[in-house]
Every structure is written in C-alpha cells, then in structure tokens.
Design brief:
With 312 residues, the protein is of the alpha/beta class. It contains ten helices and 14 strands. The mean pLDDT is 88.
C-alpha cells in the first residue's frame, strides 16, 4: 500500500462486519456513497479485490478475511493509544468497561467496581450485563476491556484466565421437605417443579446430562437466562426448586430460600476474558486484580464459591 489511512480501514472493517454498505453507513454516521467511495479507494490502494456480491450483500474475499484479522490487532493498539490520550487530557483516572453474564454482573462485578471506585477517585466504570455469546463477541472485537463468563471458552483471539469457581446448587423454599437435606440428587428431584437455566448455557447442559444419566425426566416449569431471576422465582413461588449458580444468595440474602448441594457436582468456573491482541491498560490490570481478590473475599461469604488464579 502507498499509505495507511485509518479511516479507510475503519470503513473496510465495518463493511466486513455488516456485509452491507447501507448498514455500514448508518453505523459510521456517513452517507452510502461515502462508504462506497472509501471501499473503492481502499481496494485501489491495497491492489486487491476485497468483496464479491451475493444479492444485496457484500461477501468478503479470502484476502479481505485475512486483512480483517490483521486490522483487529492494529485497532486494538490504536484503541489503547486513544485511551492513554483521553486519560492525559482529562486528568482523570480513566474509564473502563466490563461485560459479564447477568449473574456475575449483579454480584462479583458490581462488588468489585464499587470497591475500586472508593480506592481510585475519578474512575468511571461501565458495567454491561449481556448474554454469554455477546460478552465473548464484545471482548473479541474490543467493544469492552474485560469480559466475565462461565467456562469453558476456547477462542484464539482471547486471553482466558480462570479466576474462581462455584458449583450448581439447588435453591429450595425454606420449609420445603428437601430444605433439610445435606445434598440432593436427580432422583430426589423427580417430579419436583424445577426452574432451570437457559438450555444454551454450559451449566444447564451438564445438569440435564446428570438427570439423563439417572434416568429421571426433568419437570421444568420455568427457564431463566439468569440465576438471579431463578432465585427470585423460587422465593416467590414457595414450592419450586431451582438449579442455579449460588452467586445471587450473596446479594439478595432472601430468608425464604435455602441452598442445598446438588450431586453429582456441576462446576461453574469463572473465566476472565480480554483480547489476545490488545495489551491491557493500567486500569484493566488493576480491576482484573481486584476481581481476583473479590472472588477470594466472596468465598468466605457466598456458599460454594472459591477463588483461584490460573491462566490458560
């Protein structure tokens, strides 16, 4: 290429992601002719044919896909540079964004963020509660600094660190016959009205495997995409049993619910995610360390939780 133009690269990346000049123009806040002109200029500078057409959609060529991967690394460094400039210009500690699945966002992330803001005046933390797939995607594409989900996660574009774990527990209404059990099994839960996590989650899949291995059909009366929602449902039903992550009990402290171990054990490992191509900022490293410490602290408060620090 004769020259490197970040604006042209930004247009190229947006069109690859959207496969549409119209959508790309809306996202970038420019006109469609401007996007088309920028694409043509970029292809001319690169000396490559980067898109084909399939109906109204633009289809990236193999060369475009390879260039897109390289631009991800470049824009990660550009983003870090911009963050440094913003910090210097504002004179503030800076901004940090962290996305997490709802259960971890409402517990571990909020607890960590509030504690850190007391230690670092001027810090601005953006907390985003999203579905697991959205957290992973946002981390890969640098829309957030850090992500928190339950393992397993395997993606070459991510640095993945296991910082703690919990296990699936049975949340039982206080006074329920199962509330006094040391642990419950699928056989104990036969015919019980169950509140289950979203079938798409790894934990839900493992729980269903436990029931299938025991030859027991799950009597699912409600599905929830958040352990916090399922916990609240048990508290209000007075009769249902939820198989969820124990984190909500450390936030809600609802006297109407009792946690009972579920056997066989279904582990819930907490994975801290960041881009493999974006060096962590000073603030990202700081909050990552605070998350590790908060997990260790939470282990003494929330049942069935323990902290660790193992990079993968």
């Amino acid at each position: 290429m004769k020259r490197l133009n970040l604006r042209l690269l930004e247009v190229f990346r947006t069109v690859v992601e959207t496969r549409s000049v119209t959508v790309a123009a809306d996202r970038l806040g420019v006109t469609q002719p401007a996007v088309s002109k920028a694409l043509a200029e970029f292809e001319q500078d690169a000396g490559l044919s980067l898109f084909g057409r399939q109906g109204r959609r633009l289809i990236p060529t193999a060369d475009a896909a390879r260039l897109y991967d390289e631009t991800s690394r470049l824009f990660a460094h550009v983003s870090v540079f911009r963050d440094r400039v913003d910090d210097l210009r504002s004179g503030k500690a800076g901004q940090l964004s962290i996305a997490a699945i709802p259960t971890l966002a409402a517990s571990l992330v909020v607890q960590t963020a509030m504690g850190l803001m007391e230690k670092v005046p001027g810090l601005n933390v953006k907390v985003v509660a999203s579905a697991r797939a959205e957290v992973i995607d946002a981390t890969i594409h640098h829309r957030i600094d850090l992500g928190l989900v339950h393992a397993p996660v395997t993606d070459r574009d991510l640095h993945i660190e296991t910082i703690g774990e919990s296990e699936i527990v049975a949340v039982v209404p206080r006074g329920h016959p199962l509330a006094g059990y040391e642990f419950v099994t699928p056989r104990d839960l036969d015919d019980q009205p169950l509140i289950s996590l979203d079938p798409a989650t790894p934990a839900s899949h493992l729980v269903r495997e436990c029931f299938e291995a025991a030859g027991i059909d799950m009597n699912v009366v409600m599905e929830a995409n958040s352990s916090t929602v399922a916990y609240a449902a048990v508290a209000n039903s007075g009769r249902c049993v939820a198989l969820i992550d124990p984190w909500p009990s450390g936030v809600a402290h609802d006297h109407r619910c009792v946690l009972v171990r579920f056997r066989p054990t279904v582990p819930q490992r907490v994975a801290l995610l960041r881009s493999a191509f974006r060096p962590p900022s000073r603030l990202a490293e700081l909050i990552a360390e605070e998350l590790r410490l908060q997990l260790i602290k939470s282990a003494g408060i929330v049942p069935f939780v323990k902290g660790m620090a193992t990079s993968t």
